[in-house]
Amino acid sequence: MTALFALxxxxxxxxxDFGGGLLTRRTPALTVxxxxxxxxxxxxxxxxxxxGGWSEAGPQLWFAVAAGLAGPVAMLAFYKALALGxxxxxxxxxxxxxxxxxxxxLVLGERPGMLQFFGILVAVAGVCxxxxxxxxxxxxxxxxxxxxxxxAFGFGxxxxxxxxxxxxxxxxxxxxxxxxxxxxxxGGPALYVSVRRGASALPAxxxxxxxxxxxxxxxxxxxAANGTYAIAxxxxxxxxxxxxxxxxxxxxxxxxxxxxxxxxxxxxxxxxGLALVGTVLLASG
Length: 285
Fold this sequence. Notes:
The chain is mainly alpha-helical and 285 residues long. Helices cover 76% and strands 0% of the residues.
């Protein structure tokens, strides 16, 4: 179950990152974050009411609040980095954040077996290579890398925090709702301040009503990914769940290749293959 839900997380995060990166090429990144997460709040609020999730309220929700504060910073940095692109380079570097939940798992006493430990090393190396990292180039490229590293730490923190925010399915719905409310509460004022400082909140032709379905998809896919990851982490070792969930850059790179026709270099193809080998080792261990 851990492997299944963690791999589902990687697919959901991968397509959400790809969609978010495309949207930020036309709409400011902070607007994409606030609007997509606001849509998620409405949907999750309805789910919480329908499932009676309010009864699961407790001190553990502070973990969801913390995740909600870290999330907008990470998403904003990541979407800006994706807009600078190319996606096939930025997304794999973001996987470095897996070190945060893996480190938490090790501190809490988890000790993966030899096969799983080897699988972790192979998978992480594969994910990093899947982007064919280009550390040389123009200042824009260096800016994209800096933003990606900031996002990586934030994403890793969210993974570690959301896994501690609930113990039941209905509690998970409530935790995700609280996380998204916090996302909007933090992102909304940031968007207001940005506009006050002269930045644009909308494209030149106004609010992108035609992009609402895509914005909704990005927000809900990200929510679903957080949910499947929490389930994976609760039913198995966090060290395994976190690494398998971190395979999402491979999904983003493949989507960029299929839709944007970004060429995969030899090192990227080799990295994808290593990531697959690592996945098999982790799942079989």
